Amino acid sequence: MKTKKSVKPIPLSLRDKKRYLVFELISENNLSEKNVSFALKKKLTELFGSFGLSKMNYQFIGLNEKTNKGILKCRHTATEDLIAGILLLKEVNGIKVIPKTLKLSGTVKKAKTFI
Asked: Is residue 7 part of a domain?
């Protein structure tokens, strides 16, 4: 009888530290989560390349489509790069936007209180 070996999880001391960035896109229309995610990833790839984006450990968490506020996750050393990438975003799917960063947090729970 074969027994499965479980993979040991990475200890907390070796995991990357994460930061969650709460942002708002001011526009006349409501934006869809899919379009914002695509436009932001395209802009970050233009700025930093795919290698820089992978070092950033960027992840789009979500967007509240009523308020146009969203959350992004990145490595704690790449927060300034992520903020720069958001502020250079000028349009989403042909709709002009004005980006604004609201809060930088260490936990998702705290970040969700600002949405």
From this structure: no
Q: Does 8 score more than 70 pLDDT?
A: yes
**Measuring CA to CA, how many Å separate 44 from each of 2, 87, 110?**
47, 11, 25
d(C-alpha 109, C-alpha 58), whole Å = 18
Query: What mean pLDDT comes out for the span 59-71?
Result: 94
CATH number at residue 50: 3.30.70.3250
Residue 2 has pLDDT above 90, yes or no: no
Contacts of 24 (CB under 8 A, 6+ apart): 67, 68, 69, 70, 99, 100, 101, 102
Q: What is the pLDDT of residues 9-22, one digit of tens each?
A: 889 888 889 999 99
Quote the CA–CA distance of 43 and 88 in Å, as a whole number: 8
For residue 67, the enclosing domain spans 17-112
Strands 98-105 and 59-64: unpaired
The string of pLDDT tens digits covering residues 89-98 is: 999 999 999 9
